């Protein structure tokens, strides 16, 4: 049986320890010696890649989760000790180059100018000294998978706000699920449907009321036309007035009457027709 090794300290782990690899890169990862952060906004990958001397080596990144059950009688009944380490290794020899215990989200910081570069805080297992190294992925998909694995680690460690309380309150949730919320005999429940589609449909189905307030729509009678007035002059009993004749044209009234000569009569010298 192979003895598991602590990825950060290289010390052997208990035989009942369990390790799970959350992420391993399939392509090469470039490691940089990064200068101090110049901006309060965050690290910039352009500051690392501009200087060829800042490139230290090309290796492999693994994220390993280690679970150690209680080892002493005093620890019986307690939960397993879970820890996550980000290790930089030589892919040819599997030798450990550096390790970063993932105890807080500040251990890994994304750069502000590239989604493929991260600033990683590594720690010496013997002296405890810490240093910042730059990590650059060749493929964008690899950096995306790296971020997804970190989110999985945050859930396991309870680094995400709200995850740990959910785990502790699981027994309370189970008790609430077992409660009987059915109505007992004689109990009633009132449902207010106002503001829902059912409430609106009910209001639309109600008959129109003639007693409406000032904010509501006027009754239909307000739009009815009055009946036509009755004729004072009869009209054949049909109740319709006679239309007056059209007025004569002023031009026709002042038209000159034709003379007798123009009409074909010859008036003699004594004013008599001949």
Give an overview of the whole structure:
The protein has six helices and eight strands, in the order E-E-H-E-E-E-E-E-E-H-H-H-H-H. With 274 residues, the protein is an alpha+beta fold.
**CA-to-CA gap between the ends?**
159 Å
Helix content: 10-25%
Return the average pLDDT rounded to an integer. 74
The secondary structure category is alpha+beta
Order of helices and strands: EEHEEEEEEHHHHH
In one word, what is the shape?
Answer: elongated
Largest β-sheet summary: 8 strands, antiparallel
Total helical segments: 6
* Low-pLDDT runs: 163-177, 208-214, 231-239
Explain the layout of strands and helices:
Elements: E1 18-24, E2 29-33, H1 46-49, E3 55-68, E4 81-89, E5 96-101, E6 108-110, E7 117-123, E8 130-137, H2 140-157, H3 163-168, H4 170-177, H5 197-205, H6 250-253
Antiparallel strand pairs: 1-3, 2-3, 2-8, 3-4, 4-5, 6-7, 7-8
């Amino acid at each position: 049986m192979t003895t598991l090794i602590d990825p950060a300290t290289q010390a052997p782990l208990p035989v009942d320890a369990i390790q799970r690899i959350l992420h391993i890169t399939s392509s090469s990862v470039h490691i940089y010696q990064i200068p101090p952060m110049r901006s309060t906004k965050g690290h910039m990958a352009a500051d690392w890649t501009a200087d060829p001397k800042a490139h230290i080596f090309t290796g492999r990144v693994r994220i390993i989760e280690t679970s150690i059950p209680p080892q002493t009688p005093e620890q019986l009944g307690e939960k397993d000790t879970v820890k996550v380490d980000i290790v930089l290794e030589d892919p040819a020899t599997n030798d450990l180059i550096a390790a970063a215990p993932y105890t807080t989200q500040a251990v890994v910081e994304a750069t502000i100018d590239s989604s493929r570069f991260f600033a990683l805080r590594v720690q010496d297992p013997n002296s405890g000294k810490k240093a910042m190294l730059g990590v650059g992925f060749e493929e964008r998909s690899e950096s995306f998978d790296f971020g997804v694995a970190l989110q999985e680690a945050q859930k396991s460690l309870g680094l995400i706000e709200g995850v740990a309380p959910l785990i502790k309150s699981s027994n309370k949730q189970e008790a609430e699920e077992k409660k009987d919320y059915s109505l007992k005999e004689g109990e009633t429940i009132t449902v207010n449907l106002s503001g829902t589609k059912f409430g609106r449909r009910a209001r639309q189905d109600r008959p129109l009321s003639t007693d409406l307030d000032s904010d509501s729509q006027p009754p239909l009678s307000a739009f009815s036309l009055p009946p036509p007035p009755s004729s004072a002059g009869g009209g054949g009993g049909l109740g319709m007035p006679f239309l007056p004749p059209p007025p004569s044209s002023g031009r026709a009234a002042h038209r000159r009457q034709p003379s007798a000569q123009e009409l074909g009569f010859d008036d003699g010298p004594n004013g008599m027709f001949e």
